[in-house]
Amino acid sequence: MRAARYFGPRDFRLVEVERPVPARGEVLLRVRAAGLCHSDLHIIYDELGGYPIPAPLTLGHEICGEAVELGEGVSDIELGRRYAVFGPVGCGHCRYCRSGRDNLCSESRWMGIARDGGYAEYVTVPAQALVPVPERVGDAEAAVATDAVLTSYHALVTVGRLEPGQGVAVIGVGGLGLNAVQIASALGAVVLALDIDERKLELARQHGAAVVLDSRQLDPQKPPLDRPISLVADFVGNDQTKLLAQQLVERGGRVVLVGLGSVGGPLAALRDIAEEIAVLGSFWGTRLELATVLDLIARGIVRPRVETHPLDEILTWVERLRAGAVEGRVAFVP
Ligand SMILES: [Zn+2]
Ligand SMILES: [Zn+2]
Predict the structure, then answer these.
(1) Ligand 1 mean position, distance from CA 41 (Å)
(2) Which ligand has the minimum distance to the alpha carbon of residue 91?
């Protein structure tokens, strides 16, 4: 079968590999769609601060597929049914998994990052990572739900503790940030969208942002919203946006760092301490939240913007994403 594999820094290619066989507790999925993520770029271009990535490895951690073969000991999965894959997997028995914080499981091997992912015709997945896809949710939507929607939801609701009526700033309204704008406005927040790309800002306006601004034109003397900003979600995560986030947030507010733009850089400023600004990391989301976001999509509350392309074009789209030329999200169909 065809698979897009990482062989080492800057060496990412389409190759032929054997179709995998599901081990005990695993399910073989025929991939119906797999979403492209900025994290893939960070892996391919060696921008994860030395975080170890095994090679060769099939990338692709946003997966929707159809169950076609069950490994030994799997009983609660229906053949022919569509499933979304919970990328962080979770071992199911450590203290994090048992308390529902399975995104923090220390024993699991993440899909497309630590074990072969979905840029292929078939992929094997531990059965506990599969979440049924509601009928009204399309393949590509389900794929991007597993990260581009899930990560935004987790950052705003669980880590950010968003409440209706709050002022919320979303920095970076690309693939994830645009979903964050939709989720925050659907939950009753008043959203400020910041980016440096006019087209992305226009999309954010169409998807519910109350105010959109080019972050380079922000006037520090003039409050950008009609209310204090209680929560800032930074989906870029470079030094400039991290500082911007800390400047925007009100006293006692929360800054949630989601983007992996620069691992390192200035984190704590004096304001963080003297004004009790909580600066929090947010990672992916939980399996339970994945079921919730699939439901939000099924009900039309969140409409992920995603375009599909053949897997054979993946190298071109990796370049386009790197050049900032992708609006919303791209998913591949093998
Ligand atoms: Zn991702
Ligand atoms: Zn665990």
Answers:
(1) 10
(2) 2
CATH of the domain at 98: 3.90.180.10
Written as six digits, the tokens of 253 are 């507010």
Per-residue pLDDT of the chain (334 residues; tens, 9 = 90+): 999 999 999 999 999 999 999 999 999 999 999 999 989 999 999 988 788 899 999 999 999 999 999 999 999 999 999 999 999 999 989 999 999 999 999 898 999 999 999 999 999 999 999 999 999 999 999 999 999 999 999 999 999 999 999 999 999 998 899 999 999 999 999 999 999 999 999 999 999 999 999 999 998 788 999 999 999 999 998 888 888 998 899 999 999 999 766 556 656 566 677 788 888 999 999 999 999 999 999 999 999 989 999 999 999 999 999 998 888 799 999 9
Contact of 230 with 253, CB cutoff 8 Å: yes
Asked whether residue 312 is assigned to any structural domain, the reply reads: yes
Q: Which ligand does the CA of 41 lie closest to?
A: 1
Q: Whose atoms come closest to the Cα of 126: which ligand?
A: 2
What token pair was written down for 196? Answer: 């440096």
Non-local CB neighbours of 206 within 8 Å, separated by 6+ positions: none
Task: For residue 107, give the ligand nearest its CA.
Answer: 2
Q: How many A from CA of 113 to the centre of ligand 1?
A: 10
Q: Do 179 and 231 fall within a single domain? A: yes
Q: DSSP letter for 94, please.
A: S
Specify the number of domains making up the chain.
2
**Tokens standing for 30?**
């025929």
Is 156 domain-assigned?
no
Q: How many helices (H) does the chain have, and how many strands (E)?
A: 10, 16
**266 & 294 share domain:** no
Boundaries of domain holding 102 = 2-147+285-333
| CB under 5 Å of ion ligand 2: residues | 90-91, 94, 97, 105
Asked, for residue 153, whether it belongs to a domain, the answer is no
127 and 62 in a common domain: yes
139 and 229, same structural domain?
no
128: CA distance to ligand 2 center in Å?
11
Which ligand is in closest contact with the Cα of 109?
2
Question: If 0-12 CB within 10 Å is exposed, 13-18 middle and 19+ buried, where does residue 208 land?
Answer: middle
